[in-house]
Amino acid sequence: MPRRKPQRKNTRRNAPPDMSEGSLFGSAMVRQESGPAGYADESFIVRTIPGARATKSYRCPGCDHDIRPGVAHLVTWPAEYGGAEDRRHWHTGCWSGRSTRGLTRRWS
Q1: pTM for the whole thing?
Q2: Other C-beta atoms within 10 Å of 87: how many?
Q3: pLDDT tens-digit profile of 91-108?
Q4: Which of 75, 85, 76, 65 is nearest to 35 (CA)?
């Protein structure tokens, strides 16, 4: 019978989450980041939506393409004055490259 390696005890697995990076919003983690080009001086709240929880189709303001149901993405809104009508759904890659390109769509 083959031998198995003894497993190390991982203390980080049972440790509570570090709240310095973000805080809980409902059951999701949120964090603050700078905004896209043109809004870099503002701070935005960012929440990650896993693919299993993405049930509707949205339009990404970074690339102006659809975010289909089942695709993991981000929801962002301005930290100071943001409400439900100010939330925008971004592809993760589009949000990561937000400093090099601006919004492709403007809302009034």
Answers
A1: 0.68
A2: 14
A3: 999 999 888 766 666 554
A4: 76
